[in-house]
Amino acid sequence: xxxxxxxxxxxxxxxxxxxxxxxxxxxxxPLLKYFFTFCGIFVAAGIISASMFQLKWTxxxxxxxxxxxxxxxxxxxxxxxxxxxxFLLLFFGMLSFIALIVTFLSYIALYKEKDKQVPTTxxxxxxxxxxFLRVFGSSILLHLLLTVATLLCLVxxxxxxxxxxxxxxxxxxENASFSYAFNRSFFLIKDNWWxxxxxxxxxxxxxxxxxxxxxxxxxxxxxxxxxAVPQKGxxxxxxxxxxxxxxxxxLCQVFAILPITALALCYYNLTESKDGTSLMEKINKLGTxxxxxxxxxxxx
Length: 300
Prior knowledge:
By secondary structure, this protein is mostly helical. The chain has a domain at 29-67 and 80-122 and 191-274. The protein has helices at residues 13-26, 28-38, 40-66, 84-113, 121-152, 154-165, 167-173, 178-189, 193-228, 239-251, 257-274, 277-285.
């Protein structure tokens, strides 16, 4: 039987990627359970708002293609497709993003604290309700800073991305404030920027490829609908396919298990290479652990 992943250890680029998949495979059942338990309400709200937005978008496009609108008079503005549905989609998408980060990082923190044992629902809920608002506020500030850095020049935005990403695991895994996590992220990533950046890029590429693979069936249905249904101006987008596609995209958020796990492993890799925390814990435990044996006590 394969041993459980040791979270706190120094890893190279390849080990971060392979251990990410190994950890997820070993813990897939509880991870999925807590995904639907604590993120399910936000995902469901996202599915509803995404479906409403897709229905509006598809109905407008089909109306233009079928001639329902007088194209000489109908001059859509750049914001024609935006409305309450779109902003609801953004809002619930942001809440889902925060819930995913807090849920999976809380699981990893408790998993390490309990010596590779699956945490209970009550333990998870205690962590999530404690960190949710802290991570929520921090994410808004970090997105603003990252947006400004990217607009000023693309290079600073790229450079800061892995540094800012480390702030979330520092906050949850070290129970740290935002200011402490902000400064510590710069300290940890010094001399290790490329390994962290490369690992996260590869995992995010895998994440997006997984979403694309899941979305292929609905894309094929839409293409067939456009070709096979003769109407004025051409075929029409399939409304059921649009709704199903919107729902699948929201459910695909579960694949975020991969980049969040990789981010946590990057954090442990950096802390071990800088601080050697795990090694010091093992040294401190020497002589304090009583061996557990089934041998009977000696009698004289």
